């Protein structure tokens, strides 16, 4: 997890935003629908497998387990892609692998709340869990963008001597700040630093020295 944030940030900062946001609906569909399908599929297999074991998982416990391991590793995905891969394909795979981290966290929190015996199951409980799960993604997005805008304002109005050295240091500090703030608020740091890098590239790139 130490190397993952800078890798995601660098990929987001150098992201071809036009291609990414042009395919944002496809990426979100792959991340959310694919993530839910993967979690349910793995959960079903785990539930069936434990039927032959002394300890049998309940369906909710299986769903919690499935949500934990259904997320793909973006570092592995990016390392396996050749440099000559189609740009659209790269963007779809990268975007999905970066955003499904949020899906895994959302599903885990949702199923964990369902597994709590003190919480009565019902429409209101399901609605509350769903809304809180959506808030995780929206909050992570907001933290990343706000930190990026703060960095853009800083680099626009504060002139730094020997710009490249100080700017690089501030760039990394603000990038990690978005990640740590999201984790502090129990959001997802990967989504936060991803959108932070993308927003910095758009709003702060022209403020940086060459």
TrEMBL record:
<dbReference type="InterPro" id="IPR018422">
    <property type="entry name" value="Cation/H_exchanger_CPA1"/>
</dbReference>
<keyword id="KW-0915">Sodium</keyword>
<keyword id="KW-0739">Sodium transport</keyword>
<keyword id="KW-0812">Transmembrane</keyword>
<dbReference type="GO" id="GO:0015386">
    <property type="term" value="F:potassium:proton antiporter activity"/>
</dbReference>
<keyword id="KW-1133">Transmembrane helix</keyword>
<protein>
    <submittedName>
        <fullName>Cation/H+ exchanger</fullName>
    </submittedName>
</protein>
<keyword id="KW-0813">Transport</keyword>
<feature type="domain" description="Cation/H+ exchanger transmembrane">
    <location>
        <begin position="2"/>
        <end position="209"/>
    </location>
</feature>
<feature type="transmembrane region" description="Helical">
    <location>
        <begin position="24"/>
        <end position="50"/>
    </location>
</feature>
<keyword id="KW-0472">Membrane</keyword>
<dbReference type="InterPro" id="IPR006153">
    <property type="entry name" value="Cation/H_exchanger_TM"/>
</dbReference>
<dbReference type="InterPro" id="IPR004709">
    <property type="entry name" value="NaH_exchanger"/>
</dbReference>
<dbReference type="GO" id="GO:0015385">
    <property type="term" value="F:sodium:proton antiporter activity"/>
</dbReference>
<dbReference type="GO" id="GO:0000329">
    <property type="term" value="C:fungal-type vacuole membrane"/>
</dbReference>
<keyword id="KW-0406">Ion transport</keyword>
<dbReference type="GO" id="GO:0005769">
    <property type="term" value="C:early endosome"/>
</dbReference>
<feature type="transmembrane region" description="Helical">
    <location>
        <begin position="89"/>
        <end position="111"/>
    </location>
</feature>
<dbReference type="GO" id="GO:0005770">
    <property type="term" value="C:late endosome"/>
</dbReference>
<dbReference type="Pfam" id="PF00999">
    <property type="entry name" value="Na_H_Exchanger"/>
</dbReference>
<feature type="transmembrane region" description="Helical">
    <location>
        <begin position="131"/>
        <end position="153"/>
    </location>
</feature>
<dbReference type="GO" id="GO:0007035">
    <property type="term" value="P:vacuolar acidification"/>
</dbReference>
